[in-house]
Amino acid sequence: MTEQLLVRVDQSHQATIHWLVWSTEQQQIIASGELEGSEQLSSLAEKAQTRPVILLLPATAVQLRTLELPAKWNRKLEQALPFMLEENVATDIDALFIAIGKPGMKADTHTIDVAICDSSWLQSWFSAFDDAGISVNKALPDALCLPLHEEMTSAVQLGQQWLFKHNAWQVGTAELSWVNEYLTIAGVKQLAHFSPASDFSETITLTAQQQDYDLPLAIFAKSLSNIDFNLRQGRFAAKKKQPQWWRDWRSGLIAASVAVVSFIAIKGTQLYVISHQANQLETQAVAMYQQAFPNKVVRPHLLKKQIQNELDALSGTEQGGLLELTNHFVAIYEEIDAFAPETLRYDKRRNELRIRARAKEFQVFGQVKAILEQRGVSVEQGALNNDGDFVVGEIRIRGAA
């Protein structure tokens, strides 16, 4: 993507939200503005449809720390992180979300960068964007996106705050009213500022980056390519965004897929029914096979294949015998519920299959007869009798003699 949508939020959902559309190819601002709170996020939905969305969170809400490790970073140490941090945080560790940054080395000690924030608060912002129809691709602390100066702290003014980046994994924020106190506590001596600076202590050496003065979000956008960290990980990992062509054609493709699957299902119904009925009625199928082909050896584990071979052999002849009649009969199970055969008898001389069956209603026998006749089979229905909650009757299926 050559354009990105950056959205910077604050601690409160009612605070001002800054947004900016940035062209990475042209390195310039396409559009920018402010919202009066999260309720207006939906106004950015159209801009977010074709652009990656970068959510910038206030650095005051995300703590960045570098932890020393007893060994090289591994999966077991990741599971132990909550216990390693528990004594160093003021709130319940279970209420915090811990995001993993880069592993590194400090002298001879292994380290890992982590970012910590309130889990419920972070979820509330992701939910607000979801409710507005906006998919957030990346989430970062705002000050982390400042340009990095190895010997100086970087700073930019955003609203009534100054944002600071002291090194690659140390950031801070100070209100205008106590910015000098913050810098004193942080031990800052040199400051590279990307906004006009005044009222700073004379003890601070200021270096104006006038050639890079710009809107804070534009300055952040220029540095995004140098930052591979993302708060959208673990249980907050971003869902893979569907491509535009899929969103445009999804309904048509799904309908076409359903049609194709239905067509294949209809064509494969006969084989499907025969296979499953053979599994469910194996004993009866073996007996019927032996009756129809007394001189052939029955192998129960290969019975389905034997039946299929006989059907294939008979498919081109005029008379199908027992297997042809059985083939017609089992096909009705795809369309008729509550119809269960009790006995099946085959008269080879008359090429007739007699089925004594049980159903819930008289009409079921009529439906079976109608379906078989539609398949070109001669059907005779015998007497029907009530047997408690069921109806018992006989159907005769006759092929060519």
UniProtKB/TrEMBL annotation:
Residues 5-239 form the GspL cytoplasmic actin-ATPase-like domain. Its main location: membrane. Gene3D superfamilies: 3.30.420.370, 3.30.420.380, General secretion pathway protein M, EpsM. The keyword Transmembrane applies. The keyword Nucleotide-binding does not apply. Pfam families: GspL_C, T2SSL. It is a single-pass membrane protein. Inner membrane component of the type II secretion system required for the energy-dependent secretion of extracellular factors such as proteases and toxins from the periplasm. Belongs to the GSP L family. This is Type II secretion system protein L. It comes from Pseudoalteromonas maricaloris. The gene is gspL.
